[in-house]
Amino acid sequence: MVKRMLTGDLNAEIDCQPQFPFKERHMLRAQLARIQHTTQIVPAKLYEMEEESQAVKFSEEGPDMSTESLKSLEAWCHHPQLILNVGRCTHPEPTWITDEEEKNAYIEK
User: Fold this and answer.
1) Which of 12, 73, 91, 102 is the most exposed place for a label (fewest CB within 10 A)?
2) Are 6 and 24 in contact (CB under 8 A)?
3) Strand locations in the chain, DSSP E?
4) Domain range for 62
5) What is the pLDDT of residue 28?
6) What average pLDDT does range 74-92 have in this prediction?
7) Per the domain annotation, does 51 fall within a domain?
8) Which residues pair with 25 in a beta bridge?
């Protein structure tokens, strides 16, 4: 939500709306993490998702790893988890909810 030109002074304060309570070095580190996270690619068909548990695992077949096949864009895909709006890849476990059904409903929401 913050659009800011970096000054080059890593100890500079960030004056913006919404407020960013840290220094420019922290904003730069966060931006680099977001860029690195979204640019990780793997060969397509290297991983597959289990239908029951929705877990990602290595595929049994594996991709075609020949040089000619890896030259096409269709041979590649993004692999890492998505970054949530709160800046994490996973939601924190709700410790304040004791009922298991309510906890699962909260996590799914």
Assistant:
1) 73
2) yes
3) 41-43, 47-49, 56-58, 76-78
4) 41-79
5) 92
6) 75
7) yes
8) none
